[in-house]
Design a protein that fits this description.
Chain lengths: 239, 239
DNA sequence: CATAAAATGTAAACTAGTTAACATTCTTGG
DNA sequence: CCAAGAATGTTAACTAGTTTACATTTTATG
């Protein structure tokens, strides 16, 4: 499962030149986590930058009643910890492993040193932050503008983009988490889609049967024309 | 009026050393705008980085029915254009001046050159993006977690922080825009606050009468403990 | 200073979400 | 292979927001 920062957003490691990646690997301390294993707590003062080598990490906050609300799930290739390194903040989220996960941790000290040694690292980091910020703005905007049955459809299409089989392996609870709504709301939206023949649900997932149909059905909601990048996001930002 | 990126977030210019600020001023082309004057349109290919010298800029998107939905209002000291410069995107929002406004525009070419000449500029930019991203995450989180009468109160308190008079000069429509809800919803929340004696509304603004009372009333909603920065955000990020 | 424009206050009908509950179906581990 | 757990499907009552409407108050303007 995944969230905001995964769809169509390449990870830092993917855009970094090989030699830089190697330096990350050399400096970082790899740590293994089992499924569900706790990684960090909101409020921790452990400052550093981390790269997910494999698996995924679920970030969120546990409220006083003990209920966990997911903020984002980052998958392999993605990094996190900017807030502690660049913002001087303690950990802002609880985090635990989703599936067996390997993470390479760099302390703030080491990371700062790396950035001093390699000023070329700044560009990809700025790019990464920019893309995430842009993504968030769009997300908030959609949240205000469109109902769930638009947003869910849009994100389902995003999820299968570039996949040949159109099978989304996420439970409805996970999709609900993803969209920040209740499971019932997701089930109802999916029931709608099913009636129109856009999707077929199955245990533990669903299949997009008619992407084009869904796409054009969604267009009825769209109140603004989408902006398409002139150059793709995340080119080697000419710094 | 202001939005997400103003409360408690210093502008780029405020954190930049004097010499760097001077370089910005030297390279940029200053342009004056009258109240309500159009500055940019979503989709424009004009790429560059801009600094608001005085006044404010309202960003948003106009939907097909012609209705404008505000995304953010940036005030003097704030900058924008990261998406065009670092993300290779066309302008993602429509923008117009709020009040007489002066903006210093740097073309992408000039800005790229400036960054090459001044690698030290990377740190404050990274910091800025980080702070904004963090703010957005918190915003989305609050959106999911809390009802309007919590979020509005929280933001009213944020707005008067550091002010001695506790007068907020924003119409209810502006507050509604700010919170991404209808004017009626804001009026109802304010009516609640009034009944409790926390605020007094007046034409074109409102006054916080009992900050401490409001603060403690808000606490009843809070489901997680706030995280406080160990070191303040936006220190000269030790790069 | 009279009138228009802007802002506030409030009610009513509606809608898209919520939680709770429960029956059903599917999968997996002993 | 069957029992337990997990996931789905669906209903019902509720709630926090929406839009529309309109009366009232305040400010700005010719």
């Amino acid at each position: 499962m995944s969230f905001i920062f995964n769809f169509g957003i390449p990870g830092l490691m993917e855009v970094l030149p090989a030699d830089m990646r190697a330096r990350f690997d050399a400096l970082g301390v790899e740590k293994r986590y089992q499924d569900k294993q706790h990684i960090q707590s909101r409020g921790d003062q452990t400052k550093g930058f981390s790269v997910i080598k494999s698996g995924a990490v679920c970030f969120g906050k546990t409220d006083k009643e003990g209920r966990f609300i997911t903020t984002a799930v980052l998958e392999a290739g993605q990094c996190y910890g900017e807030f502690t390194v660049f913002g001087g903040l303690p950990r802002t989220h609880d985090g635990y492993a989703e599936g067996p996960t390997v993470i390479s941790h760099l302390s703030k000290t080491k990371f700062d040193q790396l950035l001093l040694d390699e000023p070329a690292l700044a560009a990809p980091i700025i790019s990464l932050l920019t893309v995430r910020l842009h993504h968030m703005l769009e997300w908030v905007d959609d949240l205000r503008r469109y109902p769930l049955r638009y947003r869910l459809g849009k994100n389902l299409l995003l999820m299968v983009k570039g996949m040949e089989d159109s099978l989304i392996a996420a439970t409805q609870s996970e999709l609900a988490d993803l969209m920040g709504v209740s499971r019932v709301a997701v089930a109802q939206a999916l029931a709608d889609y099913k009636r129109s023949g856009f999707v077929a649900t199955e245990y533990g997932g669903l299949r997009l049967l008619d992407k084009e149909g869904l796409r054009s059905w969604l267009r009825q909601f769209e109140t603004i024309d989408p902006v398409v990048p002139a150059t793709p996001l995340f080119t080697d930002a000419a710094l």
